[in-house]
Structures are given as structure tokens and as C-alpha cells.
Amino acid sequence: MRLLGNSILFADTNPEWKKRRVAFAPAFYKGKLIKLFDIAKECVRTTVKRWRTIEGGKPRTRFDFMEEMQMMSGRILLSCALGEDITEKLIPYRRGGKVEMRQINWVLLQTFGDCLHRMASPHTLMFPFLRYWYILPSERDNLANCLEIRKAI
Predict the structure, then answer these.
(1) H or E segment to which residue 99 belongs
(2) Residues 36 and 82: beta-carbon distance below 8 Å
């Protein structure tokens, strides 16, 4: 089972699995799931309201639908995880030595992608001990972005 990781999804049914399952069970109680579903519905309503504002009554307004869907997904995840919608909160975002204020939702999305990219970069794959060092300027920017997200949440 090493290939698929040691997560609760792929673990063998053993005492360790049972312990994890018991720990996760409260998150899936019917009442909690209904509350999470209500939060998600409210996030979708907020997004649709935002689209109507962008549209401004014009029938053929263009916007990046994929980015909007990513932002809505982030709004749902953050709202369910934190119990409040903080997606409009602005935090510093660093890239290429420049700093700009961006919505936390957007920063989270970009930073997560950068973290995944770093995990697959040749120097961290070939020399795993380098994952503890932030050699490239882009890696240092990403670390700063992670710390800003942590501070904001």
C-alpha cells in the first residue's frame, strides 16, 4: 500500500485505520454535512450575485469563467473550513520580486499551484534534502506567500 500512500482512503482495515476512522467520523455527521451544504449554497449565491454585478445589465459581458469557478470553489472551501467567507480579504502576494495586494482566495490558489510545481521540480526530486532549502527566488516568494496565508487565516 506504499504506492498509494498511508492515507485513510487507501489504508488497510487494521487498528490504525479504525483509530483514524473514529477521529474523522464527527466531520461526517448528518447535521454537519447539512450545515456545510448550506454554506456551499450561500457561496454559490454570492458568486452569482458577483457575476450579475460584473455583467452590469449588459447582455454580452465577458469574463474568465474558469477563474471564476476556481474562485467559487475556493470560497466554498475557505468558508466551510473557517466558518466565514474571507475570500475578499486582501493580502500581499509576491512574485518576481514584486509585491501586490490580492484576494486571499486568489493567493491561495496560486501558492498551492506553486507548491505542487516545487514538489515536482528537478532539484527537489533528484536531491530530496533540498526541499528544506529555498534556493530560487521564486521559491522564496512562494514561502513568503505561504506565511502570509497562514498569518491571514
Answers:
(1) strand 98-103
(2) no
Q: Is 131 found in the same domain as 93?
A: yes
Mind listing the pLDDT tens digit for each residue in 47-95? 888 888 876 767 677 778 888 888 888 889 888 888 888 888 999 999 9
Backbone φ and ψ of 101, nearest 5°: -85, 125
Give the Å distances, CA to CA, from 45 to 26, 41, 136: 27, 6, 41
Same domain flag for 73 and 125 = no
| pTM assigned to the model | 0.68
Q: Which domain holds residue 128?
A: 88-153
Q: What is the dihedral of CA 59, 60, 62, 68, to 10 degrees?
A: 40
For the cut 80, the answer to whether the pLDDT of residue 108 exceeds it is: yes
Instruction: Assess contact for 85 and 101: CB atoms under 8 A.
Output: no
